[in-house]
Amino acid sequence: MPEALPSEMLEHVAERFRVLGDATRLSIVSTLLDSGEQNVGQLVELLDAGQANISKHLKVLSKAGVVTRRPEGTSAYYSVTDPSLMALCSIVCTRLREQVSAEARNFAI
Amino acid sequence: MPEALPSEMLEHVAERFRVLGDATRLSIVSTLLDSGEQNVGQLVELLDAGQANISKHLKVLSKAGVVTRRPEGTSAYYSVTDPSLMALCSIVCTRLREQVSAEARNFAI
DNA sequence: TGCTTTAATCGCTTCAGGGTCATATAGTGT
DNA sequence: ACACTATATGACCCTGAAGCGATTAAAGCA
Fold it and tell me: Which residue, A18, A46, A55, A109, is most buried by CB atoms nearer than 10 A?
């Protein structure tokens, strides 16, 4: 019987969750999912953040294989390529909503 | 049309991922999933970690609603109560394996 | 009322990583 | 070659959190 979480993978799985555990990075992937491929400048403007900051986060995301970089001229276009991302986020969102409503029920008691 | 990741939830979703983004915490939930409910002392022994450390992580996990605490005598028994946990971990594991094999293919080319 | 056991908390140190500014690098056009 | 633009990187500061030892708190028992 397979373990729920193989011990050799623990650190890797944690690392993946850590990549997603930052609001700025989530806002980047959210933007890419909503509006499709964007270059760094566009993301900087849309998210109202520092250029260096966005670049760094994009590096983290691309190193993790969440996004892919497509250079074009002096620009770099990024898009989400991780097919599991939507599922992960949607599971977490659903769970969070469940917890909120469960808490509301407890409060009512 | 709903956004992939509602902006009001960004920080909450990130926080949830952050809770799972630690190898020690993952080893705790992994143990609880494999062996069922355990008290703090048992976890300390199984994971060969400091008691204060485990207690702190359990607090984080229980605050996030991932595990539940059941006091009994001077002990405290914890178990996983988040139904989404398995799905999350299994998605990440699968994705990681995909990436590894994809990398292996690229290397072969 | 102590005494023991178990867990939670406090104080502390250390380190990873997020943010920013400044600089380097790379591509484009003149 | 030079200037201009877009992105990446380096240096730095600073906060958050992990880990540890010591202490406290709570439950059970003599």
Answer: A18
